[in-house]
Amino acid sequence: MNTTKSVYNRLFAEDKVELASERVELGIVEDIAAASAKAIQISNALFDAVDLADKTQVELNKLQAEFQKQVANVKKLYPNAEKYQQAEDKLYEKAVAAAKNLGLSERDIKGWGDFSKNGISVNSAINAANKYMSL
Fold it and tell me: How many Å apart are CA 87 and CA 25, to the nearest integer?
């Protein structure tokens, strides 16, 4: 019986070693599969982010070009608004003096309401444009 027992012990001992090594190999295979899946996930996410950044950069370049064009347009139109405002100030003074000579208020002059309202609009436009004049 000792011989049979000894044979069984050797067989089972060797089987245990082989099973343990197979488990180790299966563990490595699973780790490799998990790492490969993670690599695909990471690379896909990064490629998607790069693609979106590239598209955004193209749009940003278009917007930057349009912005520069519009700032140039503001700078081109600004002097005309300033000239109008100076002329309007002179006309205002002239209208006030004329109305006083006639014993009237400037508000009694036909078209004064529109003139005043539109002058305020030009002044507001100048104030809005000021932020672009230093660019």
Answer: 91
